[in-house]
Amino acid sequence: MGAAGGTLGEYTRNQLSSLHDVVGTAGGDSAQLLGELLGTAAGRSLAEPPGWPSDIADDSTPVEFSIAFNDNGERHLRILGETSPGTGSHTDHRNAERLLEKIAGARGLPLDRFRAIRDLFLPADSGALFALWFSFIFRPDTPPDLKVYLNPAARGPEHDRGSVAEGLSRLGLAGAYRTIEQHALRREQDRCAFFALDISAEPRARVKVYIAHEAGTAEDAVAAAAAVPGADAAQVRRFCEITGGGTEVFDGRPLVSSYAFSHGDTAVPSNYSIYVPLRSYVSDDAEARDRVAAAMAERGTDPGVVDEALRAIAERPLEAGPGLLAHTSLRLGGSHSGVTTYLSSEAYQRPSAQRRVA
After folding, report:
1. Using CB atoms within 10 A of its CB, is residue 87 exposed (0-12), middle (13-18) or buried (19+)?
2. Which residues contact 112 (CB under 8 A, 6 or more apart)?
3. Taking the CA of residue 90 as centre, how many other CA atoms within 13 Å lie in the half-sphere pointing to its CB?
4. How far apart (Å, rounded) are the C-alpha atoms in residues 343 and 330?
5. Around 319, how many Cα atoms within 13 Å sit in the side-chain half-sphere?
6. What angle do CA 195, 295, 17 make, to 5 degrees?
7. Can you tell me the distance from the alpha carbon of 113 to that of 120, in angstroms, rounded to the nearest whole number?
8. What is the pLDDT of residues 308-326, one digit of tens each?
9. Is the peptide bond before 123 cis (omega within 30 degrees of 0)?
10. At what angle do helices 218-225 and 233-243 cross, to 10 degrees?
């Protein structure tokens, strides 16, 4: 566990600082935000087992980092995390809601949209993988953005589609569900995996819906992408081919599609993303790195920052196994088009078994 020793807070804070230096983003109060996010877990020794079974990462580290590379040259750093539930149950959402209220209040962010749909997703039952996750997005010279993730299956997997449909309707996006159903929920194996909200007063604040294509293929991603006007099917297919290493059926961890809707979009999403779970389809992270580099090179993006980021946070050779480069995604739609790489903190360093279904 955690080769550097110390506490979870110290370990992840050092990784975050290093990644800010690599990406060139403003650190600001990011260390404070990370500490608030981790809560009581921040002071937990890495010599102890994780305090609760967070599904953020394979080793139960409740933090994941990612770097987004836009085709226009912009890039930013993100944290995805889960706050300590305090009770040892990852579906106890009370601490998470208190943290959301605290951060939103301090930054003057509205929570009306969250409150409008809260009852659809919270409380979560004991079989749910999670209740409420946070994402902080750091860009150069601007305050961080905040997004929250909710679990469509929080009240049971049989409710995932109904909860998403009702949530979109309450947020003035009733036509959006019909679009998702037509393009991404075409098979019985397709399921709603995440429902995400920008916590923002901006008019174009987004709602994002993520669809997991269990035992899916690149053609399922191509069909899903067709919902976005101008989305290039060839790019989607090629990205799955490169990063999936020619995998025909993704029968380990699934491919995931996502759509971004804002108030002006109504039924037509402005953005489509495809997420490929690298760690299920590579022998080690050296292979994952090469696939990510090849996909970025095809879009004219230098993968050098990924190499720097890996050197900044990895405490093991890439050849030791898979899991550090957890997944990667392709975004299509306007100025936000690009590639994102997702980096596991590996604070507890328990390598994942290959091809395990999430």
Report:
1. exposed
2. none
3. 20
4. 15
5. 0
6. 65
7. 12
8. 999 999 999 999 999 999 9
9. yes
10. 150
pLDDT for 269-298, tens place per residue? 999 999 999 999 999 999 999 999 999 999
Between strands 325-332 and 190-198, the pairing is: unpaired
Q: Is 14 helix (H, G, I), strand (E, B) or coil?
A: helix
Question: Which residues on adjacent β-strands are paired with residue 202?
Answer: none
Residue with tokens 């429902």: 195
Q: What is the pLDDT of residues 178-210, one digit of tens each?
A: 999 999 999 999 999 999 999 999 988 999 999
| 90 contacts 51 by C-beta, under 8 angstroms | no
Q: Which amino acid is at 182?
A: Q
Q: Which residues contact 337 (CB under 8 A, 6 or more apart)?
A: 70, 71, 331
CA–CA dist 127, 296 (Å, integer) = 38
Query: Is the distance from CB of 261 to CB of 298 less than 8 angstroms?
Result: no
| Nearest Cα residue to 39 out of 98, 101, 121 | 98
- Supply the DSSP string of 71-119, one letter for each residue: TTS-EEEEEEE----SSS-TT--HHHHHHHHHHHHHHT---HHHHHHHH
Give me the mean pLDDT over the 64-76 stretch. Answer: 95
- Which amino acid would we find at residue 58? D
From residue 352, give the alpha-carbon distance in Å to each of 45, 65, 285, 333, 349: 21, 17, 12, 33, 9
